[in-house]
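Sample 3 of the quickstart, ligand S-adenosylmethionine:
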Amino acid sequence: MTIEEGIIFGKKYLSSVDAKILLSMVTGYDTLELINYLNKELSTVEEDKFKKMIDARKNNKPLQYITNSVNFYGIELYVDENVLIPRFETEELVENSIKIINERFTNPKVLDLCCGSGAIGISIKTKIPTSIVTISDISSDALKVANINKNKYNLDIKVINSDLFDKINEKYDCIISNPPYIRNNEEIEEIVKNNEPSIALYGGENGLLYYERILKDIKKYLNEKFLIAFEIGQDQSESIKKIANFYLNNIEIIVKKDLQERDRMLFILSK
Ligand SMILES: C[S@@+](CC[C@H](N)C(=O)[O-])C[C@H]1O[C@@H](n2cnc3c(N)ncnc32)[C@H](O)[C@@H]1O
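Result:
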C-alpha cells in the first residue's frame, strides 16, 4: 500500500484529516509533508499498524488515545486511557489563570490538584518558568502519564500521589483544579463514557462533590494572598459560589465564560 492508497483507504472510514494524522503517525512524516511522498510504499509493519489504528477508530476509540498524543496550549502531550483527554476549555482556564497569576505574583507557587496528564501544571511551568509547580492526582496510573510529560520537557515539577489534600503538606499562592464534575446520572457522549476513565469524570449526585471537598479544606494550603482557579460545569457557578462563600472569607469571585459563552471558569481571589 502506498501513502496515497492509505489516504484513500482511510477515507472510507474516517475523515481525511484523521486518516492523514494516522498515516503521519506510522510514517513519521508531518501531515503536510505526506503530499510529497504519495507514491512511497508503506512497510508491512507500517501498513499493519495503520490498519489496526483504523480499526480502533472504527470502534470509536478517540484519536488521541490511538496516537497517544494531544496538543494542549501549544504543547504536545502524551495521553493514554489512564487520563482524561485535555479539553479546549481547560486551555482557556490555563490562559486566564496565567493572566491573573502574572498580575498578582512573582515566582508563584502553584498546585495543580487532580492533574491527570499534567496538562495544566505543565503548561503553567512552561509559560511561567519561574513558577514552582506541584501536580497531584489520586490515580497512580494517571501520574505515570504526567511523569512522562514532565520528563519529555525536562521540567522541575513535584509530583504527588494524593487523595485531594491528604498528602499535601505545603502552602501555595495558586491552587488550580479541573476536578471531576459531571453528575453521576448525567447522559454524556458514548465515546467519552466508553473510553475515558470514570474516576476523571463523575463528581457525585450533583457534580459538586469535589468542589465541596476541595473548598472545605483549601484554606490550610493557601498563602494569605491567593488565587483558586476552577474549571466548572456550565450550570454550576452559583452553587460553587455559595460553597466558596461558606468556607472562605474576604474573597472576590469571578466567573468567566468560555469562547462558546458558557460559564466554565471560576476564580476565587483573596481581597
Ligand atoms: C477532569 S480530570 C482532569 C485532568 C486534568 N487536570 C485535565 O484538565 O485534563 C480529573 C482528575 O481528577 C482525578 N481525581 C479523581 N478523584 C480524585 C481525588 N480524590 N484526589 C485527587 N485526584 C482525583 C482523576 O484521576 C483525574 O485525573
